[in-house]
What does this fold into?
Amino acid sequence: MPEERARPVENTGEVVAAAIIVDGRLLLAQRTRPPELAGLWELPGGKAEAGESAEDALRRELREELGVEVSGGDRIGDDVPLPDGRVLRAYRVQLVSGTPAALDHAELRWVDERELGEIDLVGNDRGWVPDLRLHLNGR
Ligand code: C5P
It folds into this structure.
């Protein structure tokens, strides 16, 4: 009988994260879960659904998490492979309407370049800091 080995279920697809920059400040959101990430700060976003484009996923996630409408979606920084097989990608988006509210996070903060270097980001987002700095400098 051939040896049967349990294979981990590999998820495919993308997790999108949004860089919203207004007046030289970047919006960061403080996670509430899971326990090991609670209290750390991230670019808001989440998992794209099957068949959903990155831009549509950004629009849906930011409506759900922040109560705002956004547009656009130019890539920022490198792909971040996640342990579950998904890939995390950051996008620069424009705020179209609404004022961001922490509907799914503990708190929101607008950070300038100096504060971005000092705040405790989730590990996955740290590699984007140099690119985010360029955007905060008005590139
Ligand atoms: O927010 P949510 O839990 O749906 O995100 C899905 C996965 O993407 C999680 O593993 C989360 O840690 C990761 N993520 C991240 N950085 C972000 C957004 C999500 O590491 N800015």
In short: The pocket of cytidine-5'-monophosphate is lined by residues 15, 17, 37, 42-43, 45-47, 82, 88, 122, 124-125 (CB under 6 Å).
